[in-house]
Amino acid sequence: MSQHPLAQYLDSVPDFPKPGILFSDISPLLKSHFVETIDAMSALFSEEEWAQIDCLAGIESRGFIFASALAYKHNKGFIKVRKPGKLPNVFASIDYGLEYGSDTLEMQKGDGSRIVLFDDLIATGGSMGAAAALCEKVGYQVVGMACLVDLASLNSFTYQGQKVRSVIQLED
To answer: Does 1 have pLDDT greater than 60?
Structure first.
């Protein structure tokens, strides 16, 4: 499989945030190729699909980068999926496990909008799965999920039959 040209701008950081973790840092990519990155993420969905989407939800914090830029590009609303203590009027929360610990996400009440959920990276699928379940719990319809980087060797994640779309797939 041929890798997306943007993959060359990722930086691999060993032992971050804990020993044994190889962290894929998107900072160099965003610094030098932000517009190209947003365009590549936009291309994950067809024009017909974009027409059926009401809002984009971003998972704190790096998911905010992509969801907000794409919401602007496609004239859609933006929804925050936040960590505890950072959002007023919390309607529901969900606890979940991830590859190096556990965490909680919170959201305000939804309104039935059709949303796509965005994050920077999917590893095991813990945060994406929790965020998708939380979006539905608060009253949104999850019609898609996307991320910049998929650590494909760590997951085969799907949510209710939907796969996460990604620009860059890393096998190891």
So the answer is: no
> What is the pLDDT, as a whole number, of residue 92?
98
Nearby residues of 53 by Cβ (< 8 Å), 6 or more positions away: 45, 74, 76, 114, 115, 116, 143, 144
CB 104 within 8 A of CB 127: no
Q: Crossing angle, helix 62-74 and helix 27-42, to 10 degrees?
A: 40
Q: Could you name the CATH architecture of 45-170?
A: 3-Layer(aba) Sandwich (3.40)
Let me know: does 115 contact 134? Beta carbons within 8 Å: no
State pTM to two decimals: 0.94
Tens digit of each residue's pLDDT (9 = 90 or more) over 45-95: 999 999 999 999 999 999 999 999 999 999 999 999 999 999 999 999 999
* C-beta neighbour count of 144 within 10 angstroms: 21
Task: Please name the amino acid found at residue 162.
Answer: Q
